Amino acid sequence: MTVLPIAPRIAVLGSGSWGTAIAISLARNGRPITLWSHAKESAHQIAAARENRKYLPGFKLPASITVTADDDTLANADILVSVIPSEFLRAAITRLRPQFHPGHILLSATKGITPGTEAGSFLRISQLLAATIGEAELKFPIGVLSGPSFAQEVASGQPTAITVAFDDSAIAALIQREFSSESLRLYTSSDLIGVELGGALKNVIAIAAGITSGMGLGSNSTAGLITRGIAEMTRLAVACGGRRETLAGLSGLGDLVLTCTGALSRNRTVGIELGKGRKLHDILAGLGGKVAEGVHTTRAALGLAHQHRVEMPIAEQMAQILDHGKNPREAIRDLMLRPGKHEH
Predict the structure, then answer these.
(1) What does the pLDDT look like over 104-143, one tens digit per residue?
(2) Whose CA is closest to 274, among 316, 231, 320, 313?
(3) Domain check: are 70 and 213 in the same one?
(4) Could you give the residue numbers annotated as active site?
């Protein structure tokens, strides 16, 4: 059983917009927080400015946040929150592997599925972490943090509700107690699969929602897409062992609605530009180093769906647009002209 000190030390791995926002939110509880960056130059710039001007400009870091690129400092933490983008995760965790020890609790706030080219294809992020670290050897809990949460709004202290999932309900309750504040409310779950896949798959649907917006389509199209999108997400999550009710909660429907309709969504922004006729390469180059996880997740989601023999027509059309340059209008036409079915 994992036993933490009365005031556990928390380190956030990854100094992007979401990692920085989580660190700022946790610092409101009056605890010292370590924000780890993979690059010394980046850590120095953030520490000197007391602001992440590249990824989260306009939000000053509280004095209780220490920014570092020193791997050794992580060994002293009790709770590690991993917010490293999925495409860089394996390399970063391999580098940090010597710092992990059995007393740690590891919480993943990264949303994605490993691609088919990875060793151990189509893994959820928690599975990738366990495989890379050697969870069986170190024997410490790995959980997931997910839900409707734009980094800018969390950093500014706007009320936000998210879900924390661990196999061990006591660990989930512990994280709930340590992370909750006046602006951040956590709900617990034991359904890691459902929570994790909900957070990953919604990014695929968000690109599609952005495309409808970029094409100038109306609310009917968006509402239909969100509704059929959650049905598609739920089918795959349940086939993988998740629970249907999880996908109806914060980490499923809640996150989907936010990402499909919110102006701050990078995945929706990519879709909008695709709908306007821009090329994917040019759109991604214009994100300024920020990551739209849905682009990579689309391919991986289809690989996972193929393994479980689950039909995902929206994701299939997104893959045609992203990978093969299919005209979005043709993709929508093909979706609309699919054979009629019973809704449930």
Answers:
(1) 999 999 999 998 766 568 999 999 999 999 866 678 899 9
(2) 320
(3) no
(4) 202
